[in-house]
TrEMBL record:
Protein name in UniProt: PCDGH protein
Lineage: Eukaryota, Metazoa, Chordata, Craniata, Vertebrata
A biological process term (GO) from this entry: homophilic cell adhesion via plasma membrane adhesion molecules
GO molecular-function term, one example from the UniProt record: calcium ion binding
PANTHER family: CADHERIN-87A, PROTOCADHERIN GAMMA-B3-RELATED
Organism encoding this protein: Rhinopomastus cyanomelas
Length: 349
């Protein structure tokens, strides 16, 4: 009997035979008590009494797949005599149950360096129906093509695998809509949230935003020489950057906690006559294990200031002159030099 059969439906059970006559012959049928069926006695035109099975309550194959009942035929004798028959009722399935996922929402974490083909998650759905009505195929619901290119689901096993490489710095999570469909066309949905775990795959990046070039040698200490920006797109410790300055230069690095901007300032006075330019290297390291580093080279020319007076080659000249030397004769040639540059070093006597 199909589980969709409506209450009130009747099923012919046949006739019990009794060789006696009159009141000693077959009089009634009785059915073992149950919650679904009753038996009614019907009489044919020839007077024979037969039994009909009547459905009183809707069946549900998922709660009871079969019933075994005893039908009893009784005569009217004193005492009455009876005969029994076994009724085996198989409840056949209809597709009245959709698939059900084990969870309405799945959450899974995947490292961003997972290779294409890596397993993301295995989902499962069940169907209380039987046969083809319980055969489930899996697939993705309506989603952007970007997601369909990134992930693949096995239609038979419900296994989700990675098709393309992940990038935490591009997308930190994905929400997949998964469908389970039985052969009868009923569908269930669930969501799969894929969290991308960051790995230390990016080195710190140093950008020189501004350099005061050249720097006057008479610039006071504290003068800003360069503005730098340091960033690391990784997260957590992988994106926490520390900086150090190398190279012999009268410069120091100033930074504030939580800021990605670094400032190079003069730590002591410059002297162009001693060093015409300074070269230094800024090294940025992140907190990953192992750490990744980035470097930037900065060249700071020093421009001259007129901070040096001319100096004669000698502090005193002694010249002996004959008294008959003609007017216009050269007595002595003196020289002076200035270590400054350009017009600052041009000497006039």
């Amino acid at each position: 009997i199909n589980e969709l059969t409506s209450p009130g439906a009747r099923f012919y059970l046949g006739i019990a035979e009794d060789g006696d006559v009159g009141s000693n012959s077959l009089q009634r049928y009785e059915l073992e008590p149950n919650k679904y069926f009753a038996v009614e006695v019907k009489k044919r035109q020839d007077g024979m009494k037969f039994a009909e099975l009547v459905l009183r309550r809707a069946l549900d194959r998922e709660s009871e797949q079969s019933l075994r009942l005893v039908l009893t035929a009784l005569d009217g004798g004193e005492p009455p005599r009876s005969g029994t028959a076994q009724l085996y009722i198989n409840v056949t399935d209809i597709n009245d149950n959709p698939p059900e996922f084990a969870q309405e929402r799945y959450r899974v974490s995947v490292r961003e360096d997972a290779l294409p083909g890596s397993l993301v998650l295995n989902v499962s759905a069940s169907d209380a129906d039987a046969g083809s009505n319980a055969r489930i195929t899996y697939g993705f619901g309506k989603m952007p093509s970007k997601l369909l290119q990134k992930f693949l689901v096995d239609s038979e096993r419900g296994t989700i695998t990675l098709q393309e490489a992940l990038d935490f710095e591009d997308t930190q999570s994905y929400t997949l809509l998964l469908e389970a469909r039985d052969d009868g066309g009923l569908i269930a949905h669930c969501e799969v949230e894929v969290q991308v775990l960051d790995v230390n795959d990016n080195a710190p990046e140093i950008t020189v935003m501004h350099v005061s070039s050249p720097v006057p040698e008479n610039a006071p200490t504290g003068t800003v020489v360069a503005l730098l920006k340091v960033k690391d797109p990784d997260s957590g410790e992988n994106g926490q950057v520390s900086c150090e300055l190398s190279g012999e230069a009268p410069l120091s690095l100033v930074t504030s906690p939580g800021s990605s901007y670094k400032v190079l300032v003069l730590a002591k006075a410059l002297d162009r006559e001693e060093t015409a330019f300074h070269e230094l290297v800024l090294r940025a390291s992140d907190g990953g294990k192992p750490a990744r580093t980035g470097t930037a080279r900065i060249r700071v020319p020093v421009v001259d200031a007129n901070d040096n007076a001319p100096m004669f080659s000698r502090s005193e000249y002694t010249v002996r002159v004959p008294e008959d030397l003609p007017v216009g004769s050269v007595l002595v040639t003196v020289t002076a030099t200035d270590v400054d540059e350009g017009i600052n070093g041009h000497v006039i006597y």
